[in-house]
Each structure stands twice: as C-alpha cells, then as structure tokens.
Write a structure and sequence with these properties.
The protein has 344 residues and is α+β, with helices and mostly antiparallel strands. It contains 11 helices and 10 strands. Helix 4 links the parallel strand 2 and strand 3.
C-alpha cells in the first residue's frame, strides 16, 4: 500500500528496508562462526546453544563490556572492523581469567541512522574475532535510534558466555603469598584510557589521526587503533593446570586497579617496574600530556595486558609455555602479605 501523506517510520528517521538489507549482509558472517553446539540460525528471537559434553560439573561464566571512547577513533578514521575485534577479545579475556573457555557471543550496536556498510564492517570484525577465539556469534541487536546519536556515530557492546569445570574456577582461592607474577605484553592501549589519550594527542600535542606520532613511526590512527589482544591462545594450555593460580586482565584502572581483584584476603603484590621497558607509545603520551607516572599506571596498562599468577616452582615452565605462543612475557613481581600493589 502507498504511504500516502501521513507520517511514516522512515520520515521519523528509521529506514526498515536498510535495516533488513544490513541484517541480510550479516547472515553469512554469523554463519561462519557456528559450531557443533550452535542450534539456531540468525533471525530467531533467541539464540540456542547446547552445553558441550564431557564435563562433570560445568559452570557458565558470563561478562559484558564495550569499547569505550576508542570508538571516536573509528568515527574519525572510518575504520570500523577493528573495534569489533576489540570488543570480542576484551570479553574473552574477562572470562578466561576465571578459567573459562568461550562458548558464544552476542553483540549490540546502536546508531542514529543505519549505515549499512558501517554495520557490516563492525560485525565483520566481531565475527572474525569470534572465529579466532573459537566461539559462536549466536545473535545480537542492531538498533536505529534517530536523534539519539550524533551523525556518523554509534555505540557497541558485547556479551559473552563461557564454561569451566567447577573445581577449575580461578577465584583467588589458590593464590599464595610468594607466588610469582608473570606479565604478558599488550598491543597498546587495548580498550582503556582513550579519553585521556585523545585529550593528549589531539589537544595537548595538536595532532590529527593521519599525523605521525613523534619517534614512533606510526600514525595516530595506527597506534591508537591497535587491536586489543586476546590472550586465549597463550593461556589455553594452562587454563586447567595446577600450575596456574590466577589471571588478571589489565584494563581500566591499570595494574593497581585490576591485580587486587584476583588476590585473596590480606594479599597484595610487589611489582618490579624495572622488569620491562615501558613501550614508546605510553612514553609519548606521558611526555605529551605531562602526566604524572602514578596517573599513567592508574589509567593505562603500560604494556602489561595480562598477569599470570603461578607458584614459584612453576614460574620458569609457565613463562616458557606462554612465550612459546609468541607472547612477550617476563617475571613482573610477586604476591605479598598485606593489601595493595607496591611498585619497586
């Protein structure tokens, strides 16, 4: 039937046809992530996923997160697939620290006006990271909300579910005073600290996204859009091992804000800040913004994306196993009696 002279959803800013075309373009991306436990196709009201067999007492572990203001870099550069990878990898890291392996993922993308190419890029990144991490992209939501978001902008969130045997849950109970802290290197800022980083780079340093960062040999866009690393490939072989007492994902809050989350009552940590060279990107940001060292460590990961906690007798073997995956690893410090994180 013709629309006539009355108002329509399209006139209000929502293009249902564009939304359907975008969803159609996503079906092939989503289908590639299916595995033997995926029981539903894209388009149902809810996604169906069977618990894997062979587990005696499985416990589901779920987490939700976003990409934060790193999205502003995507808007400025027109690069939208990397933030989808960031989202999945961040969520994967958040559940492996409790010993879980990912099962399935859901995404939520909300925008003011549907831009089919942008939506496809974002979900392509999500699907790629799901494939790389061995989890099914089970479903999601793409919401068109006119007048709610600025033109060309969107928000992105992700929801992950994994599984772990109950007796293999990493909850801090295994951590002992004297345990060794092993660092796994980051690929940059990951998905935290971008409000401060953008303030430094664009305001204090006066740079644009295509400008080279002094002394780095990379553009602002290349450095700040570096993909948040997934640590699942590195830790997969030791997740269920008695050699591993804990894992900490170093996100917003840095080492001081995240390491205590996986320690037991009355435990703290001593970090040897001389055990690694702070990556040049963080040095540039600190210098460019005249940021106090304590603030840098409180906001950014400073080159440490994940910390493994292991008994002293296993430190060398675990470090070797982690390094075998190609990760930069080093002995970072140790667990101490008494709360807080002390840097030496």
């Amino acid at each position: 039937m013709p629309e006539g002279d009355g108002l329509s959803y399209r006139a209000a800013g929502v293009d249902l046809e564009a939304a359907e075309r975008a969803k159609g373009a996503l079906k092939n991306l989503v289908s590639k992530t299916r595995d033997e436990n995926t029981l539903s196709e894209m388009g149902l009201f809810g996604g169906l996923y069977a618990l894997p067999g062979g587990m005696e007492n499985p416990v589901l572990v779920s987490s939700a997160d976003g990409v934060g203001t790193k999205l502003k870099l995507a808007f400025l550069t027109g690069t939208h697939d990397t933030v989808g990878q960031d989202l999945v990898n961040h969520c994967v890291n958040d559940i492996i620290v409790q010993g879980a392996k990912p099962l399935f993922f859901l995404d939520y993308l909300a925008t003011g006006q549907m831009e089919e190419g942008v939506v496809t890029q974002v979900v392509r990144g999500v699907a790629q990271a799901c494939l790389e991490n061995g989890c099914a992209l089970l479903g999601g939501e793409t919401a068109e909300m006119p007048d709610f978001y600025a033109e060309g902008e969107y928000d992105l969130a992700g929801f992950i579910t994994g599984v772990v045997e109950r007796e293999k849950i990493l909850d801090g109970s295994l951590v002992q005073t004297g345990d060794v802290l092993i660092a796994l290197g980051s690929t940059g800022l990951h998905t935290n600290g971008y409000s401060l980083a953008r303030k430094i780079v664009f305001d204090a340093m006066g740079l644009d996204v295509e400008d080279l960062l002094p002394g780095l040999g990379k553009t602002v866009a290349e450095a700040l859009l570096a993909i948040h690393r997934s640590y699942l490939p590195a830790v997969r072989s030791i997740l269920a091992s008695t050699r591993l007492h804990g894992l900490a994902h170093i996100t917003g809050g840095g080492i001081p804000g995240n390491l205590p989350r996986v320690l037991g009552p009355g435990q703290g940590a001593r970090i040897d800040t001389g055990s690694w060279e702070i990556p040049p990107l963080f040095q540039i940001l600190q210098s460019g913004g005249k940021v106090a060292p304590e603030e840098m460590f409180r906001v950014f990961n400073m080159g440490v994306g994940m910390i493994a906690i292991v008994p002293p007798v296993e430190a060398d073997s675990v470090a070797n196993d982690l390094a075998a995956s190609g990760e930069a690893t080093w002995i970072l410090g140790e667990v101490t009696a008494g709360g807080g994180v002390e840097s030496v």
